[in-house]
Write a structure and sequence with these properties.
275 residues; alpha/beta; five-stranded parallel β-sheet; three-stranded antiparallel β-sheet; 10 strands; 41% helix; 13% strand
Length: 275
């Protein structure tokens, strides 16, 4: 049995559900905080115990299934904390878009892996607008297309691609001053991050959130169309990454009944507790 978190994320239980605050409506618009970060970029992460009397900027890792709020919460936390923001999932999406543009079938694992290793990939770390450039082409908008969401698992489950993109993500983590989110971030990419959080939410809540985000509605037709992008994708991705159970030292945050502000405040309290 997993021990319940204590301290800043100590939950209360209501009807068997883990809650971190009173029930509130589903996720609303992203929280922008006190001020936007202008071109936030990762910097040196001095590590525990670095002196000088100045609080150090932490590395924060946020994992979780599709629709749990990873991107929304991570970006808002980065803005509020004055940190950079790295969407590791965008890296896989960018490889998928670029590989398809190059005429490479995503199920050709060897070719996709070779392509990924040689791809000139830039993923911006400004939480206000994280631009993604692959092979010199701005794919920031293209990687969010539903067709990419439906096919990116072929890249995300390619173990050789995961190794390559994991290596690149760790280079950003080594620089510090960043909030990163995505699969394996709390266990493989940044297991020594100052704050590690696994966001989760009920499956129907996650599906409705993604449906509203991508299709602007959560009516039955939209939910059915979104199902493959959330439930089916998580099932496929779950064959190579565990993003449903919190590893040792990772805080579990259920966002099923939390708004953006509440979830963000929970993570910010964890950051404050580590300083």
């Amino acid at each position: 049995m997993r021990r319940a978190p204590t301290g800043p994320l100590a939950p209360r239980r209501t009807g068997g559900r883990r809650l971190l605050s009173r029930p509130v409506p589903a996720f609303g618009p992203p929280v922008t905080g006190q001020s936007a970060v202008d071109g936030a970029t990762p910097g040196r992460h001095p590590g525990p115990g670095t002196g000088g009397g100045r609080p150090r900027a932490p590395v924060v890792a946020i994992d979780g299934p599709s629709g749990s709020g990873k991107s929304t919460v991570a970006r808002a936390v980065a803005v509020r904390a004055g940190l950079g923001y790295l969407d590791t999932g965008a890296m896989y999406r960018a490889v998928a878009v670029a590989a398809l543009a190059a005429g490479i079938a995503l199920d050709d694992t060897a070719s996709v892996a070779s392509f990924a290793r040689g791809l000139d990939l830039v993923v911006g770390t400004d939480p206000a607008r994280a631009v993604v450039v692959a092979g010199g082409v701005d794919v920031t908008a293209a990687i969010r297309e539903p067709a990419v969401s439906a096919s990116v698992s072929a890249v995300a489950t390619n173990l050789a691609v995961r190794a390559e993109l994991g290596r690149r993500a760790r280079q950003v983590v080594d620089g510090g001053r960043v909030v990163l989110e995505g699969r394996d971030t709390t266990t493989v990419i940044a297991p020594d991050a100052d704050v590690r959080v696994l966001l989760t939410a009920d499956a129907d809540v996650r599906l409705a959130r993604r449906s509203r985000e991508v299709r602007g509605t959560a009516d039955p037709a939209a939910l059915a169309a979104t199902h493959a992008e959330v439930i089916d994708r998580d099932r496929r991705d779950g064959t190579v990454a565990d993003f449903t159970a919190a590893a040792a030292g990772v805080q579990l945050l259920d966002t099923s009944t939390l708004g953006v502000a509440e979830a963000v405040e929970c993570v910010l309290r964890l950051i404050a507790a580590r300083r």
